[in-house]
Every structure is written in structure tokens, then in C-alpha cells.
Amino acid sequence: MTTRTLLGTKLTHASVRQLDLDAPTRWLAAAWDDYRRAPTASLAYGAGFVIVSYVIVLGLHNLGLGSVVPAVMAGFFLLAPILAVGLYEVSRRLECGESANFEDTLLAFRRNLPGLGTMGLILMLAMALWMQVALLIFMMFFHAAPPPLDNFLYGILTSDMAVPFVVIGGAVGYVIASIVFAITAVSIPMLLDREVPVMVAITTSVAAVRDNWRVMLGWAATIVVLIGVGFLTAFIGLALTLPLVAYGTWHAYRDLVE
Question: What global pTM score does this model have?
Fold first, then answer.
């Protein structure tokens, strides 16, 4: 364990390693190996996200809230770390030489319900903050509630305010996403794996990102690309890309935290 002082407060975190820039490639290779070793659990978990994605999109569309879909899709990146707990459990079990089935993924939260539940609450608050901020930014530029999705996209693309709207919205989203990434990069796998306080897991995650910021910047970009591919394939690609991101995150945790 390492203790540092920040603004007069002592923060304790697990020791983290300094990694080379090729680390994300190793994590993806290990993730693909996990996928191949547990294809049924991986596909079932990923397919669940595909189905839920369609339900959410169709539900919002039927409620006349189709324009909220892009913000919800962006917000998915904030909730994904906790939603993937079952997949972290697959990697953990495979690492221990145990079998991994779909039932194991559904029971993963039982390993540390208080810690994982706390992280889930934190990420839900982050998601709620993002949705409120996204709505306020839209109203700041267009002085109205978002219209249906088809009119929303056309209105944004043809508006004189399109560029500042996208720039400011993207900047705010980047800040929120960066904070969430820093506190969750390894904290949730750590809480699944070890009996540690939530704050120790969070400070360990922040330390891992800070001390390996180039590596983690590349890993964050990889996550965005993989999940983006899942979205661009009408969510079907999530059945493959989401488990890969989750397994890669587990191996990142094992590589970064001593």
C-alpha cells in the first residue's frame, strides 16, 4: 500500500506498476483468449446488452423522446464499468482455473455487494448529471426542449449554432467521462477481487491512470472505438465488443495493480 497527501488529506492506495505503451495490445489479446474460453457466457451477456439497447431506444422513441438517444448512448460509457461486473467475474474465474458460465456472471455482485453497490450509485449519479447537463446545453443554444430524433438531427446539422453546440457539449462530456474513467479504470475489478474499502479502490484507480496516463489514454481510446463499433452496427456488435472491453479491463487491473 502507498500513502500520499493531497490537500492535507492522506490517501491510501495499492501500489501500481509503470507499464509500457504496448500494454493495451496485451490486454486485448488476453481479452480475446477469455472470450474464446467462455464463448457462451460472453455471447449471452453481450446479447443481453443488445436486447436492452433496443428496448431503451424503442421505448424512448415511443415516448417521443427519440432525441435523447444520443445523450443516452454517450452516457452508456459512464455506466458500462459497473454493468460489466459479470464479465469481470468470467475473467477472474478463468484466471483461477475455474469454469465460467452465464449464471456466474449474474451472481458476481454477491462477492462484494456493498462496495460494488456504492460504485454503481456513484456512476448512476454521474449519468444523471450528464443527462441534466446535456439538456441544459441544448436549451442554452436552441431555447427549447429537444424535438423528435429525426427533426433533432436535421435541426442540429443545419443550425448556425451546430459547431459551438457540438464543441461545448463534447468538452463537457469529455470532462465528465475522464473523471469517471479515472475513478473506475481498475476500481471495480479491484472491488470484485479484493476486500478493500471503496475509497482505496478509487484512489488506486486514479493513481494507476495518473502514473500511466499515456497507456491509459490509449486504452480509453480503444474502449471508445470498440463500443462505438457496437453502436454503429445497430448495437449487434456489442455482443462482441462489450465482453472484449470488460475482459481487457480485468487484465488491465491485474497488470497495473500489484
Answer: 0.89
